[in-house]
Structure of Glutamine--fructose-6-phosphate aminotransferase [isomerizing]:
Amino acid sequence: DAQKSGYKHFMLKEIFEEPSCIVSVLTGRIKDGRVVLQELEPFEVSLKELQTLKVVACGTSSHAALVFKYFLENMSDVTVDVDVSSEFRYKKPHIKPGSIMVAISQSGETADTLESVRLAKKYGAKIISVTNVLGSTLTRESDIVLYLNAGPEISVAATKSYVAQLVMLYLLAIKIIQSKESTGKRDFVDKLLRLPEVFENSLKGAESIHAIAKKYKDFKHFMYIGRGYGYPTALEGALKLKEISYIHATAYPAGELKHGPIAMLGPDFPVFSIIPYDSLFQKMKSNVIECKSRNAKILAVTNDENYELKELADDLIYVNTSDEQLYPVLMTPAIQLFAYFVADELGLDPDKPRNLAKSVTVE
Ligand code: G6P
């Protein structure tokens, strides 16, 4: 109990440690508008010429990988292929000698990710790993290690390590871009510097999220939807809810609703919508209207600047931000806290969900 520092569960404590994790990841890694990742020095030349990157990960780490893909592809000409490790390891790898693979694993011990790395190395890839555990197997098998320094994560469901992964992956993406064009993306680097302060706002809504969780805890199904940067957040939201509350939750890019999932919606199937006021807001709004017309309850995460959703949504969670590229990190506490409070209200222990392990070390 002492280790929980007054929090009821490690999961809640770890969510509230996210601001300090962001500081740890950023400390010493930005100088004069440039990302400094000394670990990557031996790769400086390959990064300059980089055209494609392979990324492997499992679970929550694979959602961080997806954010990385959206971000780097939107900001540069680099193509990012993301595979879930358990799939990558049994496919034809399409790895050229000297190519780079990024392996993301909080624990550094996930069996499928380790096997993917071994396979890629056999074909001549160099490995950059993003991990939280010093001395883990993954660190020993990688060419370069980017440590998250997020501190031990006790709760089975990943929370602060996900936020730390996202911030590290933004740094890696910017580093790649700046290897190609040295003055690139300084405005985004400034945003990263302000992130710890801005992020504090994301945790301020905890009590209102608790109240919303009480209202929704007895539903048996949830649909999470998002577009663009909101899509990985929807995936992670559904995963968190499943993991710790055992409620069936599914996630889709909102544009896919019409291709099947909307058939399931009705008064018993709420829609958790990630709908920031970004370039895809109007598209998302149309999707939410479609869900509403099936009598589904609408729970939406959005940002302060728009009130258009007020009439449409049954419940709103506000996140105070206007940085589209940073939505994945800033909206994450909302989905984590919602899952946490639902599980706790159901009398479940979010730190030790049934059937799950912190690290899946066997296939
Ligand atoms: C397990 C954990 C998840 C985690 C996944 C990948 O399933 O319960 O929280 O996201 O493994 O773990 P890794 O350590 O490779 O990030």
The radius of gyration is 20 Å. The chain has a mean pLDDT of 95.
